[in-house]
Each structure stands twice: as C-alpha cells, then as structure tokens.
Design a protein that fits this description.
Elements lengths: L31 E4 L3 E3 L7 E3 L5 E10 L11 E12 L6 E10 L23 E4 L8 E9 L8 E10 L5 E4 L5 E9 L2
Length: about 190
C-alpha cells in the first residue's frame, strides 16, 4: 500500500515488496552504479597461458562495461574500477618480475591487440609490478590479484578492457594455469 502523510504508526510493508525507484533517485558517492560482465572461470579448461616477452603481450581475455556516467563534466561523474585475479606458476629465475597492465577500447577488439601506451589505463611508467618469488631451477605457484582505477577520461558508453603482461627478463611465467581460476571485471563507481 502507499504511504502518505500519516501520524502515529505505519503498518509494516509486505515481506517482499516491489519498489520502483524514479529517475530522480540519488545514490551516495562510492556507490556501484554498473558492474560489467565477469569474464572468467573457476577452473580453466584451456591450455596454460604464459609469456617470456619483455614487452607487453595481449593474453586474449577481455571484459566489457557500459558506463552510465562520464568521468567529469556531468551532474554525476564516475570512475571505472578494474579487478583481475589469476593463479599461475613462476619461472625458474630467482625473484622474477611480472608486469601487468590493462588497455581500454571503445570498440570491441576482434582479435589480439598490439600494446599501445595510448590505450593503457595507467599513467606511463606506473604499470603494476608483481615479484614472483622462486628459486633457481624451481617453479612456485602464485596468485595475482589486482584492482585499480582507469585513469583515462571516459564518457557514458561501452568500453572493453584487455589484460597485457610482460616479464622483466628470465624464463617464462605461466600467468594462468590450465586448471586454475581467473576472473576479470569492471565496476563503475559514482564519485559525485
């Protein structure tokens, strides 16, 4: 039932009421307004994904989000948060460095992409570094979890994000195990 001007007590709502928010509903800053599709598997069925490249390599996974608000200039503005998780195996080089970054595209990539710094969501030179602790002649399993904001300006539209990896040198690192899990998604957070 509708609630109108009323003094005294109000009867409880039904146990599972249907509530419709109007277009003038407001949400606090920090509220997640959009969650993109979650690309991933609890247990991968494909082959291992590894790289020994010292330049960023597309590993051919992506996620999509439809941003509802721009990053600036609107009455409501947002930031896009990227989240990535994987399990892999380190190379056999001691304390090997693994770098990860994410690139954004306004049209869906149809095949592997070549890394371009203009597509990178990070400021130049600030790509996240992960040091895989291993000993000479041995490999070590590791999990890698990343979350960070897309630092590029964005509009209210569709975006696709792809993951790129490289090593600092040494042997190949398996970024994703054949039977290990991975998840990759984007969220849009209201900032004002």
């Amino acid at each position: 039932s509708n609630v109108t001007q009323h003094e005294g007590s109000i009867d409880a709502l039904a146990s599972n009421p249907t509530i419709t928010l109007g277009s003038n509903a407001t949400f606090p800053a920090g509220h997640i307004v959009t969650r993109g599709n979650i690309d991933g598997e609890g247990h991968r069925s494909g082959a291992d994904v590894s790289t020994s490249n010292t330049t960023f390599t597309d590993i051919n996974i992506q996620t999509k989000i439809t941003a509802k608000y721009p990053s600036s200039g609107g009455s409501k503005n947002s930031k896009i948060l990227i989240r990535f998780y994987t399990a892999g195996w380190g190379g056999t080089t001691t304390n090997q460095d693994l770098y990860v970054t994410f690139c954004r595209y306004s049209t869906q990539p149809s095949s592997s992409k070549t890394y371009a710094s203009s597509d990178d969501i990070h400021q130049p030179g600030s790509d996240p570094l992960y040091n895989v602790q291993s000993s000479p002649g041995t490999s070590k399993q590791f999990t890698y979890s990343y979350q960070g904001f897309d630092e590029q300006a964005h509009s209210a539209q569709d975006y696709w994000y792809r993951a790129f990896f490289k090593v600092g040198g040494g042997n190949a690192i398996r970024i994703m195990n054949q039977y290990g899990p991975y998840w990759f998604w984007a969220e849009e957070l209201l900032i004002n």
